[in-house]
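By way of example, what follows is a protein record of this kind.
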Amino acid sequence: MCRAGMGRQGTDPVGHHIKQVVWPDRAYVDYKFDHHRLFSTIMTVATSITVSGLWGWDYVIDAEGARRTIGLRLVMSVIIVLHALLLHFRVPRRLTTAYAFIGAFTCQMLFIEVLNRLDHGMQAQFSGFLFFTFLPLLVMQYVPFTTGAAFMVLIISLPPAAGAVGFAHDFEYVKYPLLLGPVGAMFICVLFAFEQINYTSYESQRLLRLVAITDSLTGAGTRRFITDTAAREMARARRYGGPLSVLMLDIDHFKRINDTWGHQAGDQAIRAVVDLCQGAIRDTDVIGRFGGEEFVILLPQTDRPEAERVAERLRCAVAAAPIPLAPDVSVTLTCSLGVTTLSANDHSVDTLLGRADKALYAAKNAGRNRVSVAA
């Protein structure tokens, strides 16, 4: 494994999808927020324009009363635009979601007051509450299904609750559930279907990325993965302090295995060496296949003396373990390692890895089966 997070496997794909819908993991929730943030931002702005533009309907219903509703309509638009700004400026998801709930509650209460100020407004625009049931589908795509469903329940239940406590004296809250209840239930089912589509897309992208960063033979990281990870670790070490060391490992005289026992035996030998290395390093360390039988191991928060000890431990682990290549055939391999540590003069990953590579070749030129530390 490249310690980048292997795929979650389950025997029941349908059950796994349903579980992710009801109880999603953090990685999926973060993905959905990032993936749908722009769409939700655009839809929120469109909603704000619609809310203020519907003042024309107020005027058609009651031209005199519409003069008293334009201010409320504008306040609703401002509340909704603020939600778009939170999304645009990447305010943390939980804070943005909390504001969306508060904003929806406020806007719906303002809408009830708008209808109260119009002559027969509650009767003439009763179906106007249908507009609010579209909000989870349009502006709340960035939240998990359970949050969207709760948002829908809030929208459906708030007006009858307001009518029941006397906030809207003309509100026919007995008829309201007959209109909005089935619509809300249908939209919750639509949210569930959307979530299934979103999660399927997320899983497909995650698996494609996993294939791209995982060496198919060994399960270690690919060359691209190890260089990208090294770049991130370099940036992290420079920002927060702390050392970063790199090991370059090469299996000695590997060509002899292919020539003697064939390429399948050579593949088995490479897999065995990677398994031995992974058993000898920490979970926070990262191993990647750099090419052929050559590997890079990143050691975050590890200084040069400790990195040299890790390299020696890996060398001894490989040399001490007989590796089965075929029935009744086992060989003992050795490896050479180069060690280096991030310095202030390393301006790129290539510089850091290049120095480790030079140390590796120094170990090979000195007789192999040894560790060489870069000056």
Observations:
- The chain is about 65% helix and 10% strand.
- The CA atoms of residues 134 and 187 lie 8 Å apart.
- The domain at 223-373 is CATH 3.30.70.270 (Alpha-Beta Plaits).
